[in-house]
Structures are given as structure tokens and as C-alpha cells.
Amino acid sequence: MCRNIKTLFNFDPPATDDEIHDAALQFVRKLSGANKPSKRNEDVFDLAVERIAAAAKQLLVSLETTQPPKDREEEAVKARARSAQRFSKQPEIVFE
Predict the structure, then answer these.
(1) N or C: which end of the chain has fewer CB within 10 A?
(2) What is the pLDDT of residues 34-53, one digit of tens each?
(3) How many angstroms separate the CA atoms of 52 and 56, rounded?
(4) Which residues lie below 8 Å from residue 25, measured CB to CB, with a gap of 6+?
(5) What's the first-to-final CA gap in the chain, in angstroms?
């Protein structure tokens, strides 16, 4: 889907309201194709973000798992390592 939307379930500490809102905002931006809505669409855009954030929060508090919570810092270190490896590859240039 969208690379900017991160997994928010089963972390210690749990996801904050701001993180849930940011994920909802990214989702609405992706669906609408607009980073910032026009004045005409601003109200419906904001309402969609609000409703999706509420649904996401309800989902996160309702989900159950037997797995222990993941450590946020540890997962962030892993993500940075994956990103560094992914973006450190230099393109191969072939001269003929």
C-alpha cells in the first residue's frame, strides 16, 4: 500500500493518537491523490481522516495476540538497517 504507513499493533509502548492520526492522514492522501485538499474539499478530507483514525484506534485496541510486544527502538534500528542497505546500492553503469 503506502510505505509511509507503519505497523502500529503490538508495540511497547502502544501507538499514540498522533501516530494513528498520521497513518489515517497518509491513507486519505493516498486514496484522494492529494497531499493537501482544495478549500472546497477540505471539510470532507478532514472528516475522512477523523473517521479513519477512529476506526484504526478501535481496531488496534480490539486486536489480540499471544506474541509479546515488539520493542519500538529495536524495530526502528532494524528498519534503518534495511533502509541503509536498500538505498546504499549504487547503480551499475555500463560503458560500451
Answers:
(1) C
(2) 999 999 999 999 999 999 99
(3) 6
(4) 49
(5) 39
Cα(9)–Cα(96) distance, integer angstroms: 51
Query: DSSP assignment of 78-95, as one string?
Result: HHHHHHHHHHHPPPP---
Q: Cα 23–32–7 angle (5° rounding)?
A: 20
| pLDDT tens digits for range 60-83 | 999 999 999 999 889 889 988 988
Amino acid identity, position 34: A
Closest by CA to 5, choosing from 17, 33, 19, is: 19
Contact 33, 91 (CB under 8 A): no
pTM for the whole structure:
0.77
Q: Are 45 and 37 in contact (CB under 8 A)?
A: yes
